[in-house]
Predict the structure.
Amino acid sequence: MKASRQKALAFAASLGIPVGRHLPAVGGRLREPSALVERALCLTAVAAVSFGLPAQTGRKWIEREGLWFAMTPAERALLAAPASTAPTFRTSVHSLCAFAWLLGLEPALSPISPLPGNLVKLLPNLKSDEPSERFRSNVQCVTEADALGMLDMFYCVHWGAREARAAVRFDGLEERRRALEWSLSTQRWDEVSLDT
C-alpha cells in the first residue's frame, strides 16, 4: 500500500492542493461482483429518472430485474413519486462512472476527469426497456488491490480539496469516492461516510 499512497500523494501535489502525509491507510475487502452490479443497476435507474425517464418506467424495469429491495429507501421513494427530489439524484452519474471502472467496463478513472462520453452506452438503455444481460455479460471486475489503490487516490485528493476549501473543486469527486468506499466496505449505500 505504500507505493499506492506515494502515488496518491504525488498526484495530489501535482494538482496544487494540500498533501495529507498524515492520513491513515485505507483498507477493506472488495464486495462480490454481483453486489457491485446490483448497485450499479440501481443507480442506472435512479440517474435515468433524475434526468427525465418516467418514474413508472424506471420502477417497472427495477422490479423486472428483481432489484426493488436492493435500492435504498430514498431511491425507492424517487421511483414511487419523483416530485422535486429528482434533480438531487443527478450526481449519481458520477458514482456510475466509478462503477464502470470497478466493473471493468471503462479503462480509466480519475478524481479530476470529466464523465466519459460513452458512459450511457455502457449501461442498459431503460428507454428501450433493455434487460441487464448485456451489461452483466461485459463485467470483468478490477482486482481488490487496484480498487484499494484507486480509493487511496480519491481519499487523498478529496482531503486536499477540502483543505483547499473554495480554492479548488472537482466535479463528481465525492460521488466517485462514495462508490469506491462502498465497494470496499460493508456499509449501506446511504450510510457511507466521506469524512477525511
